[in-house]
C-alpha cells in the first residue's frame, strides 16, 4: 500500500490532494481558533476596562455630589449658626423655627442633588441625630462603616446598610461624614449624608457581555471595603496581588485619591461560545475532508489519463525520432503542454543539426589555424638561414636586424602562453625599438622607468608594444622625438604601464575613436594589434575598472596608460 502511494502518480496525487486539503484546513482551524479566542478575550478585556472606567467616573461624581450636598450645610455660616443656636437655646419656639428652616434647606438639597438621600445632623458626643431629612435610627455608629477615604476633613465610607428607619431589606448606600466645629461655644456636630437607595443599583452592571461579574472597592492601602463576593473576597482583607484562580480575569481602575474599583470575572466566560464554534468547525472539517476525497478521485480520473497519453507520446518520440502525426487530448491545458512539447521537439532537432554544422565548421577552423601556424614557423626558419648567411659574409647590420626581428617573431608566436612577466614584455619592447631605429631615418629616444618590484608581475602578452607603436606611427610623423615608458605598481593592487610621447598630440574626437572597435583610428598598424583590442583584452581579464586611459594635447604629445587592477575593485584573470 505504501509503495503504491510512493511509487505511482496515482498514489502521489491522492496523497498530495489529501495533504493539500488537510493541512490548510488544520492551519485555518488553528489560526481561526486562536484569532477567535484572542478576539473574544481582547474584546472582553477592552470592553470591561471601558465599563470600569465609566463606573469609576460615575462613582467619583457621586462622592463629589454628596460632598457638595454636605458643604451646603456645613460651610453656610447662616445655617451653622442656627444649628449651634438650636443646640444651645431652651426656647422651644425658636428651636421649632430653626428646625423648620434647616429641614427646608435639607429638602432643597435632596431636590437639587440627584444622588443625596438621608441627610442628618448628628451630635458629636452621643452620636444621636437631632435633625434629619428622613426618619432614621436613634443612634448612628457612623465610623463603624467600612472606610473608603479621608480627605480635606471629610470621611467617605464604602457601601453599607442605610440608617433609614424603614430600610428593612438592608439596602446599601454610600455615605460621608463632615465635622462642623463652633470655636465660640466650643460645641461641634457632624453632617452625615447618604446616597439614595437607587445609587448603588444603578452604578454597577453585574452582567457584562452576557457574563456575571463581581465588583470590589479597595481603599488606598489595598483593603477590601466593599465586595459583591464575600465568600471569596471578605471585607477588610487585603486584595491579593495575584489571582488565586489562574482562570480569573481581574480589572482594576484607580481614582485620583488612591482608592480603587475592581471587577472580577471568570476566565472561561466565553468558553461556551468557543466550544460551540469548535463543534461547528469540526463538522465543517469532516465534510470538507470527505469532499476532498471525492475531489481527489475525480482529479485522478481527470489528470491521470491525459498524463498516461502524454507519457506514451514522449516515449514514441524518444524511440522513433522519425515524423509522427501530432496527437491532441482535447483538454486545453494538456494540449498547450503538448503543443510546447512538439515545438521543443522541433527545436531540439534544429539544435542537433546546428551542433552538427558547428562541429564541422570547428574542424575547418582548426585546419585553417594549423595552416596559419605553419607559415610563421616557415618564416622563422627562413630568417635563421638568412642570419647564418649574413654572418658568413660579415654583414653585421643585417645580422642585428634579423636577430631583433627573429626574437620579436618568436615572442609573437606565443609559446610563453597568454600571460608573461613584465620583464619579458620590456625585453620585447627593447627589440622592437631597436628594429624601428634601424628602419626609420628619423631619430627618437626611448626612456624606460620600470619599478623593479613589477618585473615579475604577470600581464597579458603583447599589450605594451601597441602603445609604443602608436607613439611612433601617430606621434612623430617622420620627425625626431622622445618616448617615455613607465611601469609602476598600484597601492591597492595591480600596476600601470604608461607610454607617453612629446609628439604632435591629437584632438578630443580622435581620442574617443582610438578605443572604438570600428573607429577609423582603431585600425591596427605595424604589428597588426590595435589599441581597442588591447583595451577590450585588459577589461576581459581584469574587469571594467581596468583598461586604457588616453590623454593628449595638440602640440604637446600623447600619454596612454594601461591600468591593471588586481586588488579591491579589480578582478583576477
Q: Give the mean pLDDT.
A: 80
Question: How many runs of DSSP E, i.e. beta strands?
Answer: 19
Percentage of β-strand residues = 15-25%
What helical percentage do the residues reach? Answer: 40-55%
Cα Rg: 55 Å
Order of adjacent strands in the largest pleated sheet: 2-1-6-5-4-3
Distance between the termini: 58 Å
The DSSP helix count reads 12
Topology of this protein?
Elements: H1 2-7, H2 9-74, H3 77-88, H4 92-112, E1 116-123, E2 129-132, E3 147-151, E4 154-161, E5 172-182, E6 187-195, H5 197-203, E7 207-208, E8 211-212, E9 214-218, E10 224-227, E11 249-254, E12 260-265, H6 271-319, H7 332-392, H8 396-412, E13 419-421, H9 422-439, E14 444-450, E15 458-460, H10 465-476, E16 481-489, E17 494-501, H11 508-514, H12 531-542, E18 547-553, E19 557-565
Helix pairs in contact: 2-6, 3-4, 7-8, 8-9
Describe this entry's structure for a reader.
The structure is a single chain. With 573 residues, the chain is α+β, with helices and mostly antiparallel strands. It has twelve helices and 19 strands. It has helices at residues 2-7, 9-74, 77-88, 92-112, 197-203, 271-319, 332-392, 396-412, 422-439, 465-476, 508-514, 531-542, and strands spanning 116-123, 129-132, 147-151, 154-161, 172-182, 187-195, 207-208, 211-212, 214-218, 224-227, 249-254, 260-265, 419-421, 444-450, 458-460, 481-489, 494-501, 547-553, 557-565. The chain has a six-stranded antiparallel beta sheet. Mean pLDDT is 80; it is low at 368-374 and 522-528.
Amino acid at each position: 500500500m505504501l509503495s503504491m502511494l510512493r511509487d505511482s502518480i496515482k498514489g502521489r496525487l491522492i496523497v498530495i490532494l489529501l495533504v493539500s486539503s488537510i493541512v490548510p484546513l488544520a492551519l485555518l482551524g488553528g489560526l481561526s481558533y486562536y484569532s477567535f479566542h484572542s478576539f473574544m478575550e481582547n474584546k472582553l478585556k477592552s470592553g470591561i476596562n471601558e465599563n470600569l472606567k465609566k463606573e469609576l467616573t460615575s462613582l467619583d461624581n457621586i462622592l463629589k455630589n454628596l460632598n457638595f450636598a454636605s458643604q451646603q450645610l456645613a460651610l453656610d455660616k447662616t445655617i451653622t449658626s442656627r444649628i449651634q443656636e438650636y443646640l444651645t437655646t431652651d426656647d422651644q419656639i425658636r428651636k421649632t423655627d430653626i428646625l423648620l428652616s434647616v429641614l427646608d434647606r435639607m429638602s432643597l438639597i435632596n431636590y437639587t442633588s440627584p444622588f443625596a438621600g438621608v441627610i442628618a445632623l448628628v451630635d458629636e458626643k452621643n452620636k444621636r441625630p437631632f435633625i434629619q431629612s428622613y426618619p432614621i435610627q436613634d443612634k448612628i455608629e457612623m465610623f463603624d462603616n467600612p472606610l473608603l477615604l479621608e480627605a480635606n476633613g471629610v470621611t467617605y465610607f464604602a457601601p453599607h446598610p442605610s440608617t433609614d428607619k424603614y430600610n428593612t431589606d438592608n439596602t446599601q448606600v454610600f455615605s460621608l461624614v463632615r465635622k462642623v466645629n463652633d470655636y465660640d461655644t466650643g460645641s461641634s456636630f457632624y453632617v452625615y449624608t447618604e446616597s439614595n437607595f437607587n445609587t448603588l443599583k444603578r452604578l454597577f452592571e453585574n452582567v457584562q457581555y452576557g457574563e456575571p461579574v463581581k465588583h470590589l472597592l479597595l481603599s488606598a492601602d489595598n483593603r477590601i471595603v466593599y465586595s459583591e463576593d464575600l465568600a471569596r473576597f471578605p471585607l477588610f482583607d487585603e486584595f491579593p496581588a495575584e489571582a488565586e484562580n489562574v482562570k480569573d480575569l481581574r480589572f482594576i481602575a484607580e481614582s485620583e485619591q488612591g482608592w480603587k474599583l475592581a471587577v472580577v470575572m471568570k476566565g472561561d466566560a466565553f468558553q461556551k461560545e468557543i466550544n460551540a464554534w469548535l463543534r461547528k468547525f469540526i463538522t465543517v472539517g469532516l465534510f470538507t475532508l470527505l469532499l476532498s476525497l471525492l475531489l481527489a478521485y475525480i482529479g485522478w480520473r481527470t489528470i491521470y489519463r491525459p498524463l498516461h497519453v502524454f507519457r506514451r507520446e514522449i516515449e514514441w518520440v524518444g524511440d522513433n525520432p522519425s515524423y509522427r502525426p501530432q496527437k491532441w487530448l482535447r483538454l486545453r491545458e494538456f494540449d498547450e503542454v503538448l503543443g510546447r512539447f512538439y515545438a521543443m521537439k522541433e527545436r531540439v532537432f534544429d539544435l542537433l543539426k546546428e551542433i552538427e554544422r558547428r562541429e564541422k565548421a570547428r574542424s575547418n577552423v582548426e585546419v585553417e589555424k594549423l595552416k596559419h601556424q605553419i607559415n610563421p614557423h616557415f618564416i622563422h626558419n627562413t630568417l635563421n638561414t638568412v642570419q647564418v648567411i649574413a654572418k658568413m659574409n660579415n654583414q653585421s647590420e643585417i645580422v642585428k636586424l634579423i636577430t631583433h626581428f627573429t626574437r620579436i617573431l618568436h615572442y609573437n608566436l606565443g609559446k610563453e602562453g597568454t600571460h608573461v612577466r613584465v620583464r619579458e614584455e620590456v625585453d620585447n619592447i627593447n627589440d622592437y625599438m631597436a628594429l624601428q631605429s634601424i628602419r626609420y631615418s628619423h631619430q627618437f629616444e626611448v626612456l624606460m622607468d620600470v619599478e623593479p618590484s613589477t618585473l615579475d608581475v604577470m600581464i597579458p602578452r603583447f599589450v605594451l608594444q601597441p602603445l609604443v607603436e602608436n607613439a611612433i606611427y601617430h606621434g612623430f610623423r617622420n620627425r625626431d622625438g622622445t618616448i617615455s615608458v613607465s611601469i609602476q605598481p598600484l597601492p591597492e593592487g595591480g600596476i600601470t604601464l604608461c607610454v607617453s610621447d612629446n609628439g604632435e598630440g591629437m584632438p578630443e574626437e580622435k581620442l574617443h575613436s582610438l578605443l572604438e572597435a570600428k573607429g577609423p583610428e582603431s585600425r591596427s598598424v605595424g604589428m597588426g594589434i590595435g589599441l581597442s583590442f588591447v583595451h577590450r583584452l585588459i577589461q576581459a581579464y581584469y574587469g571594467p575598472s581596468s583598461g586604457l586611459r588616453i590623454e593628449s594635447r595638440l602640440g604637446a604629445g600623447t600619454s596612454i596608460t594601461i591600468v591593471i587592477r588586481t586588488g579591491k575593485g579589480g578582478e583576477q584573470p
